[in-house]
Amino acid sequence: MTRSPTNVDVDPGALADATRSDAALRRFLGGLPGVDQVGAEARAAALSTRSIKTTAKAFAIDLAISMIDLTTLQGNDTPGKVRTLCAKARRPDAHDPSVPSTAAVCVYNDLVGLAKAELGDSGVKVAAVTTAFPSGRASMAVKIADTRDAVRQGADEIDMVIDRGAFLSGRYLEVFEEIAAIKELCHEDGADAHLKVILETGELATYDNVRRASWLAMMAGADFIKTSTGKIAPAATLPVTLVMLEACRDWREATGAIIGMKPAGGISTTKDAMKYLVLVNETVGTDWLTPDLFRFGASSLLNDLLLQRQKMASGRYSGPDYVTVD
Amino acid sequence: MASRLEVRKTYKLYIGGAFPRSESARSYEVTDPKGRFLANAALASRKDARDSVVAARKAQPGWAKATAYNRGQVLYRVAEVMEGRRAQFVDEVVASEGLTSRRAEAAVEAAIDRWVWYAGWADKLAQVLGSTNPVAGPYYNFSVPEPTGVVAVVAPQESSLLGLVSVIAPVIVSGNACVALASEDRPLPAITMSEVLATSDVPGGVVNLLTGSVAEVAPWLASHMDVNAIDIAGVDDLGLRTSLEVAAADNLKRVRRPDTDDWTADPGLTRIRSFLETKTVWHPIGV
Amino acid sequence: MPTPFEYAPAPESRSVVDLASSYGLFIDGEFVDGTGGSLKSINPATEEVLAEVAEASTADVDRAVKAARRAYTRVWSKTSGKDRGKYLFRIARLIQERSRELAVLESLDNGKPIKESRDVDIPLVAAHFFYYAGWADKLEHAGFGPDPRPLGVAAQVIPWNFPMLMLAWKIAPALAAGNTVVLKPAETTPLTALFFADICRQADLPPGVVNIITGAGDTGRALVEHPGVDKVAFTGSTEVGKAIARAVAGTDKKVTLELGGKAANIVFDDAPIDQAVEGIVAGIFFNQGHVCCAGSRLLVQENIADELVARLKRRLSTLRLGDPLDKNTDIGAINSLEQLERIRHLAGVGDDEGAERWTADCDLPPKGYWFAPTVFTGVSQAHRIAREEIFGPVLSVLTFRTPSEAVEKANNSAYGLSAGIWTEKGSRILKVASQMRAGVVWANTFNRFDPTSPFGGYKESGYGREGGRHGLAAYLDVV
Q: In chain C, pLDDT over 70 holds for what percent of residues?
C-alpha cells in the first residue's frame, strides 16, 4: 500500500479524524513520509560545515545565550545551587551587563517556588520537569499531581516526558491523551504555562519514530517539542533536531501554527550551538531564531558561549577562571 | 536396388522463430570448396536484417528476464538436440569446409560441447563478474552484469559451425538477443543450427540467423540505431571492418573486433564479457 | 533578537596556491616549452586570468607519446607491481598533504564551491590513488586470468567538470596496471593537472610515466589519433566520444568512453520526502549541474508532484550562490562563457517549448559566469530540455502515474549513465533498479562516488567502467 499523498500535506480535518481511535492514529502516523537515516544524517552533517564568523558569530552567541534553559536536574540539587543558577541565568557574566539573560532555568518541581522567587520580574522563565521525569513511569494520577503542583507554584513552562513505553507498544492514543491532559493542566485556574513535550528520542531509536512522535505531540497541543531528558544517551543530536524541525515546518504548512523546538542534553560548546542555529536557520527559517521558539536545554554550554564572547570582545583566548563555575 | 531420388532441403532464413525466405526473394548458390553445387541459400537483404533486429529487440527483454537457471537449461537443450542431428551436421561440415569426416566430427563435437560449456555459465556469470563494493560510507553497493541488448554478429567465415556456435552462445547466455550473419560461403550448417534452435526451447527472436553477403548486410547491422553491439569476428576485409566500426560509432555500439581464428581453444570469458554492461546500485544502510 | 542571522563571508585563503604566470608541458619528467600557441586559463568567478598554458602542437604530442613509449619500454614495464603500487601510494599521500592547495586551485580554475573541492573532489582523488595502488601487485587476482598484461601507452583526455578527480580516475588504474600515460586536461581547467605533474616529481615517479600536455580540441585529436598510443580513454561529450570511436576504427587501440547523460531521478509517492528533496538538489545542483550523471530529469509520481515541487523550491531558495572560495557557497560559477551560453540557450528553448521556468531568487555577482538554480515544470518527454544534456543547474520536472510508466520514461533516452529511485519499498527499488538501462543506479541517494564502485554508462553514455575491479579491465589486455 502506498501512502495517501494527502498525509504529506495534511488538512485540519484529517488531523481531527486521525485522533478518533488508536487505529486511525496509527494509520495516520504510519502514513507520514519515512525518514532515511543516512540521508538525514548527511544533510545535518553538510549543514554543520557552514562557517559562522565575525558579526554573524557575535550575533549568534548572544542569541544562543538568550535561548538557554539553564538546567539543573540532579538528586543533590539544593536551594543554594538553585539560587546560584538563577543568579547566573539573570546575569550570565558578572562583569559584562551587555550579556543577555538566559531564557529560563529548568528545575525539578520542588524547587519551582524558590526559583520563581529568585528570578522575580527578571523575565527569566522557570521551567519545571514533570510527569515522573525522566522515566515517565508512573500512574496518570501521579503525573497529574506532579504537573498541577508545578503549575500552582508558578512554573512558566512545563517540560513533560511522553510515555515511551506506550509509544513503542503502539498505544499512540494513550500518549496523545496524556499530553492533552497535561496541556489542560497548564491552563488550569487561569494559569498560562507553556508545554514542552520531551520525546526522549534516544529511546525512540529511529527517525521514523521521532517524526511520528513529533506529530503526535503537536497534535496533542505541545507548544514546544523537545528531544531529551538529558538522562539518556544519545540526547540531542543534529539529525534528530533536523527531523523535529522538519516536523515543525510541516506542521506550520499544515495548520499555520508555529511550534517551538528544544534540543536538550549533550550540547556543550559554542561550535555545537552554532551548528544548531544554522540548522534552524536553514530548515525552518529565521522565524524560529528567537527564544520564544527555540531553546537549548543545557548547563555547561553557557560558560563556553561566555568564553567565546570574551574572545570576540578582547581578541585573545579566555580561560575558565574568567567565568563563574555555576 | 534402384537408388531413391533424394528429397533436397530448402535452406531459409531464421527470423523471429520462423523460417522465411528472403523478403527480396533472392538466393545464391552455395558450393563446396571445390566449387560443386550444394544448395541455394537465401540471400538476405537489408530488410531481412531490419526484420531480424525488430524480432531480436522484441524477444530480448523476456529472455533476459528468464532465470539464469532457465537460460542454462535452454542452452543445454540446444546441445541435446544438436547431438541428435550430429550426423547431419558432420555431413554439412564436410561438404562446407572440405574437411575429412574425422575432423568434421571433431568440429561438430566441439560445437556441441561448447553449448554445454556456455550453458553452465548462465547461472555463474553474476557471481564471477559481479561484486559487492566496499564503499567508504554507509551504503550497500553492488555491481551486476547485465546483457547489453541486441547484438549483431558476423560469424567466422572459415569455421562454419564451431565458429558460429562460439560467437552466438556467449552472446545469448547472458540474456542478449542476436542477429547473426552466417559464414557467407559456408552457410549450410548455420541453417541447420537454426532448425536446432527452433526446436530446443530458445524463444523465437533470441537468435536470428541470416545467410547472404557480409558486404551487403553487415553495414546495415553496424549502422542500425537499435543494435547495441556488434561482433565482427567474420569480417576479414580491413576496409570493411573499418567502415563497420565507423558506422557502429553512430550509437556507440560495443564493438568486438576479430582477434582469433582458432575456435578450438578455450574461449574463456572474454566474449561473454564483451556483451555485458555492469550496473552498480547504491543504497543507504540505515534503520 | 529580530536581526537576521546572516552568514558573514568566510573565504578560504588563496595564498596556499602559488601560481606561476605561465606553464609549459610536462613531458618526460620535466616542464618544457611547447611549440604551439598558448591558452589562458581564467577564473570563471571573476574572469581574471590565472595563468597561461601551452597549447601542445602535433609535434609536442608526438614528443609526449614517444616519451611515454620510452618510459613504458625501458622502465615501467620492468617495474614490479609492488613498486608501481608504492609509487601510487606515495602520490596518494602527497595529494593528501597538498589537499588544501589543490582544493583551492580547483575552485579557482573550475568555479566549483570550495566545500565541494575540499570535501568531495580532492578526498576522492586521494582515495582513488590509494585504491588502485593496492591493485598494482595483485592483478593476477583481479579475475582476468593468471597473467593480465598492460596495454602500453594510454592517451587520456579528460573534461573540465571534475578536473583533478577525472585525472585520478584515468591515471591511477592506468599506472597500477602497468601502462604509461599522456593526459590532456580540459582547456579551461588545466591547472590542477599541472600541479599533479609536480606531485609526480615529488614522488620520484620515473620520467615519462606520466606526461601532461595542455591544449584544446586539436591537441586532444592529435593525441587520440597518434599511432603510437595503444589505449584511448576519454571522458566528455557524446559527440566527441563518437568522433573518437570513428577515429580508432580499424586500429587495435582499445577504447573506453565515459560520456553524457540525462539521468532520470524517479520519486515515488512513498519516498522519504525530505531526503528525496535533498537528493534532487544533490542530483542536479551539485557542481552547478556540470555532472555527466546529474539527475537532470525529475520524474515524480503525479499524486505528489505539486507538493514535492513546492518543497524543492523552498529548499532551493536556501542555496547560496557566489564566491566559490567562500566556505558557505553552495553554487559556484559556471565554468566558461561558452557553457553559460549553452545553458542559457537550452533554458530559452525550454521557455519556447512552453515549459514553466522557475528560478531561485538569488543575486548573481556582477563579474564572472553565473546561472541561478532553475526548475522547469510542465515538461514533457518530447521537450528538448527533457532529452538533451544541459550540463548546468537546470532541472526538468516530468510526472508519471505508475511504476511501469516511470521505467519507460526513464529509459526513453539515447543515454544510459545513471538513474535515481526514491521509495521506502525495498522490493520496488530492486525491481526498478533492475529495469533501469543505466550503469549507476542510486536508490534513496544520489551522486555518490567511491573508488571501489564501478562507474560508466549504457548506450550512448559510453562503454567501459571506471572504478573498482572492473576499472582495471580498461587498462589490461583483457576484454
A: 99
**Mind listing the pLDDT tens digit for each residue in A140-159?**
999 999 999 999 999 999 99
Q: Which residues of B touch A41 (CB under 8 A)?
A: 286
Q: Check if B136 contacts A (Cβ < 8 Å).
A: no
C145-182 pLDDT, tens digit per residue, is: 999 999 999 999 999 999 999 999 999 999 999 999 99
**Which residues 6+ apart lie within 8 Å of C259 measured at CB?**
B252, C235, C236, C237, C238, C241, C292, C415, C417, C457, C460, C461, C462
Cβ neighbours, 10 Å, residue C425:
16
First to last CA, chain B: 85
Would you call C432 an interface residue with chain B, using a CB distance cutoff of 8 Å? no
Minimum-distance CB partner of C307 among A8, A63, A290: A8
C-alpha cell belonging to residue C278: 535533498
Q: Give the closest-approach CA distance of C178 to chain A in angstroms.
A: 38
Q: What pLDDT does B13 receive?
A: 98
Candidates A260, A186, A181, A251; CA nearest to A219 is A251
**Catalytic residue list contains C97:** no
The contacts of residue A94 (CB under 8 Å, 6+ apart) are A324
- Tell me, rounded to whole angstroms, the distance of Cα C429 from its chain centroid: 26
8 A C-beta contact, residue C266 and residue C397 = no
Rounded Cα distance, B63 and C60, in Å:
51
| CB contacts, 8 Å: C242 with chain B | 249-250, 252
Contacts of residue A66 in chain C, CB cutoff 8 Å? 1
Q: What is the ipTM of this complex?
A: 0.96
Q: What sign for the dihedral angle of Cα A291, A296, A300, A305?
A: negative
Q: Do B131 and C238 touch (CB under 8 A)?
A: no
Say how far residue C136 (Cα) sits from the centre of its chain. 24
> C117 at the A interface (CB within 8 A)?
no
- CA C107/CA C325 separation, integer angstroms: 7
pLDDT score, position C2:
42
> Are B286 and A38 a contacting pair at CB < 8 A?
yes
- The dihedrals phi and psi of C186, each to the nearest 5 degrees, come to -70, 155
